[in-house]
Each structure stands twice: as structure tokens, then as C-alpha cells.
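Figure S7 source data.
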Amino acid sequence: MLYIFLTCVTAPLIATIAWRILGHPLRGFPGPPVAALTGLYAAYWDVVKYGRLLEHVTELHTKYGPVVRIGPNELSFCDPKGFLDVYSSRFAKGTQFYRAFGLNDSVVGTIEFSHWKIARSRLNKFFSRRVTISLESVVQTTIDKFVRRLQSEGANGSPVNLFLAFRCATLDIISAYSLDKPLGALDVPGFKYSFVVNTQKALVAVKVFTYVPLLYLFHSIPSSWAFAPNEDLSAEPVSVTGFMGRMKGMLHMHAHVDRLVDNLLANPALARSQHRETIFSHLLEIPNMTRSILRQEATALLIAGGDTTAITCNIGVFYVLNNPAILHKLKIELCTAWPELNTPIGYPTLEKLSYLTAVIKESLRLSHGAVSLLPRVVGPGPAVIGGSSVPEGTVVRSSSTFVHYNSEIFPEPDVFNPERWLASDAHQTLDPWLAAFSKGPRICQGINLAWMELYLLFGHVFRKLDLQIHDTTIDDFKEFDDFLIAVYRGKPLQVTVTPCTK
Ligand code: HEM
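C-alpha cells for the predicted protoporphyrin IX containing FE complex:
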């Protein structure tokens, strides 16, 4: 009996191992043998080692070369041509990675190309350059409030957590942009708005979901089970540590969005602005729109539109403040273009400033956008990626960090050096390699809004305020873990704030 049982268990196991090593179409690609055997290899670096898969795969590339087999059916490409081939394609997104977010029907979460085209076209008209520029005043109003709030939080020399402050600002901007009403994140003392804090926890929990698909069900739990209808959701929930704390954070984040969406469904007039159609008034009017799609799109917009922009500002402001020569040049350019503080300055003027532009590009380069090895599935048919023939169905991955740290494109890649973007040929040699917004058809849909936000935020913060770094050093930004965006291992950026008087 035991003999039959062991045969039943071990024979398929041995056959699978033998197939993955000797018979699999990826058998010729280099990589650690254990990675070829099991997906648990990646899970170990992602979950047990807490967001270190990217760091480990970077080391594997140093050892094995530009293409590495990092799973039974997965390849990672680190050369810039490989990056472009992966993301310029019309490949589907990798199911295991993206399903974990529970955003299958949102623009960012759709897997299949055909499904994605429908989702993306729903929002296209709100993100054209023309529409974005027409909504500059909506963004500007929130930035004015942001500058005032930095001043009040920093009164009497108190240090301000700029990391949280930027996250609140970008969240209020995207909610004002898409709904005409900011969520009110900037109103919360210390910028400890619950959605901002809980998004961080949720992104960590999602890593575990990637490897335990049963946990996807968690996204369907009605948040009303955990939070009473009149409970104040702007405050952070009582801290619970570890995985349970992160799950609680995710549930809290869901509750926030559920309440927003349920209010809109009960009273669609709330989504309408007196002056314009908003993203949500438009979505509500689409025939057969469901609560589930609204909920997913709202979550995706609030996260995609908030976190990446905030992290770019956070990194950029740190590096500028950390280098007096760069700070001086930027201030001189801004003061020359904008001599009278009380006279407003617009995006069209700011985007013509060459040094400010160089600072923003360098901030995007060193914050990377999404750092994860975002997976795509080759097909239909095989493909040539980074010079290698890859069979249909293979999961192919790369990361913007591979491009941004490539020393042949960006010499001394670790150095924050805006000047590199001012070289006469930078437009041809560097601009095509700025990969923070990704590339190809699934490039960031909010790219026009993101550029406008970055110009206005950098311009206003550096022209209107004198900031000084408080208790934060370059060591705090040396290493990061990969939780979709870079989560730095050091202390968050803190600054003291003094208003500029002229
Ligand atoms: C500095 C700011 C930003 C950066 C660096 C950035 C970066 C990215 C990246 C790397 C992707 C590709 C993700 C993937 O392939 O899975 C993406 C997608 C997306 N981003 Fe952004 N993003 C920024 C700001 C924004 C803003 C302000 C919005 C506005 C809501 C936005 C909306 C989206 C959407 C909807 C997608 C999905 C596009 C698609 O799959 O077709 N992003 N973004």
C-alpha cells in the first residue's frame, strides 16, 4: 500500500523535475537550477526575504548574464534592448502578479490586450495633454494648499515628514482631478491620512497574495464586515503588526474606496462638477457599469495616480537639498523666471525651464516609477527578446531599474546629476531610456498629468519655500525593497520649512 502511495506521489514529482530541467523549452537558458524547478524560489526572495526578488535577480544577472531563468517558465532580461522588447510588445500581462491586486477590470489590472483596450478607452479622453492642461487650475488649487500646509506643519521649526506630505498632496490632486473633490488628505495633522498609510501596508500584503491565489478572495470581503457605516475612516486603524496588520490595512483601504463608490452610486450628482464632466461622472453614465468596476478603477487611480508621483518628488527633493550647488542653480533659474512671488506662474512657463526639466528627469530616473519585474506573457507565437528566441507562453520580466542603472547609458548611474540631461545630444541618447513611465502600449495613462504635477510641485516647493533636511542622510536612500514601488529601507525624508519672502 505504502509502495503504491509513494509511487503515486514521487513518480509525477520526478517526472516534473526531469521535464523542467531536461525537457522544458527554457532548459537552455542559464540560471540557478532550483529556480528552474519551482516558483517557490521567487516566492522566497519576494515574501520570506521581504521584497528582495529584484535585488536578488540583479545579482543573478551579474553572475549569469543578460537573460536569466528565474522560474520554471520565467525569464528576466536586464539589457535595455530586452526591456524595450518586453514592454513595447502587445503581450498580455502576467496573471499571477497582476491578479493579486484584485484590480482585474481596471485599466492597470487588465490582463488580455483586447480587454485592456476597452478599459483604457473609457478613460483616454481625461488624460490627453489638452484636457490635462485645461485642468491645471484644479491641480494648482491643491498645490497652493499643500504649500500652506507645509508652512503650518513646519511652523516654529518643527520637522515635517515630507514623504507623507507628498503622498497626501498627490492623493488630493488625483481625487480632485477625477472627482472634482479632494479626499482631504492634506487636512490631517502630520499628514497621517489613513489611505496613504494603509496603501503601504496593502502593497506589502499583495506580495503574499501573488503566491497564494486563494487569498485573492480577500479582495471580495465586504469591508462593512470590519468597519461600521459611520466609523471615521480618515484616522489610521489601531496598529496591528505583522501580516495581520497589513491585511487590516488593506481592508481599511478597501473600506475607504467602498464608501466613496457607494456614495456616488447612491447620489450620482456628487460625481458631477458644475463646470465639467469628471472621470467618475463619466464612468457612472456608461451603460452596464458595475459597482465592482467602479471600485477597482477608483482604487487603481488613487494608487497609480498618487504613490508614483509622490515618490518621484520625495527622491528628487532629497537629492536637490542634499547638493547645495544643484539647489542653488535651481533656485536661480526659478527666481529669474518667476521674480514676483505674488504673480502666479503657469505650467507652460515652468515646462520651458531647462534646469528644472533636468532635475525632474533625474528624479524620475532615480525613483524608477514601478520597480518590480513587471511580467508579460509571450504570445501569440514565439518572440525575439533581447536577441534571444523565446517560446510562446513564457513569462518575461524586466525592470526600469536595469535601464536606469545602466552605466553605458547613464555614466555613474548612482549619482544624481541633472546636468546629464542638458548635454546637446541628450534628447536622442537619454530621453528614450527614461523608463519610469514604462514603454509601449501599456505606458502610464496618466503621463501628461504626472508631468504637469511634477513641474508644479517642484516649481512651487523650491520657489516658495526654503527647506532643510532634518535627520535624513544619503544612507537612508541607498537601498530599497520592491513593493511595486521602491520602499526605502532608511528613515523617511524630514525637512524644516521656512517660507521665502521674495
Ligand atoms: C511620476 C508619476 C508616475 C509614474 C512614474 C508612473 C508610472 C507608471 C508605470 C511604470 C506604469 C506601468 C505599470 C504596469 O505596466 O503594470 C503605469 C501605468 C499606469 N499609470 Fe502611471 N505613473 C505615474 C503617474 C500616474 C498618474 C498621475 C496617473 C493618473 C491617474 C497614472 C495612471 C496610470 C494608469 C491608469 C496606468 C495603467 C496603464 C495601462 O495599463 O494601460 N499614473 N504608470
